[in-house]
Amino acid sequence: MIPNFKAHPWHGISAGENAPDVVTVFVEIVPSDTIKYEVDKESGYLKVDRPQKFSNIIPALYGFIPRTYCHDEVQRLAIESGSEDVASGDHDPLDILVLSSHNIHAGNLLMDAIPIGGFKMIDKGEADDKIVAVMVGDQSYGHFRDVSELPEAEINRLQHYFLTYKNLPSEPSKCRIDLVYGAEHAKEVIIASQKDYANKFGG
């Protein structure tokens, strides 16, 4: 009898055979969550990172692309696009937001998404890119192919979350967004993070 096992969502699942055009996403958090969950890197299970202390609500499905890692190659891209003070990538899998009109009640799931852009976020001197994507087949967002097609208010809403979610009230932002980029650069970031993964973990 073959024993049951759970593939590690970071190391044991592919980014998708059509990556970076369509990527597999492991969703950790959904907009209704008042707890920030993240994958425990050793076991692969979701764990509680911290309760959300204030009114900040994640504005979209949030997770990471499997078999990615943000280090030297992601740092290089950040510097080449104008952020000269970046010391490294953030040593985590590549973060991704997935826009969808569907009310998904909990994370810990996989979905296919189409990258349409992203934010070059710098957090304490580290490149912490946030890829923006749409869920494949979504009737409201699924036709978008570049972040420039989104309403400006939507882009502002996404940026505002990342610029404020770590802050106490009236504190200055602990991070910054240097660039809002489109689909082509998002794909370059994904490929860079896959190279960083291969350099770190092999394969």
TrEMBL record:
Keyword entries, A-Z: Hydrolase, Magnesium, Metal-binding
EC annotation from Swiss-Prot or TrEMBL: 3.6.1.1
Protein name per UniProt: inorganic diphosphatase
Source taxon at top rank: Bacteria
Cofactor(s) annotated in UniProt: Mg(2+)
GO molecular function list: inorganic diphosphate phosphatase activity; magnesium ion binding
One record GO biological process: phosphate-containing compound metabolic process
Gene Ontology CC terms, in alphabetical order: cytoplasm
A Pfam entry, by short name: Pyrophosphatase
Transmembrane segments: none
Keyword Hydrolase: yes
Coiled coil: none
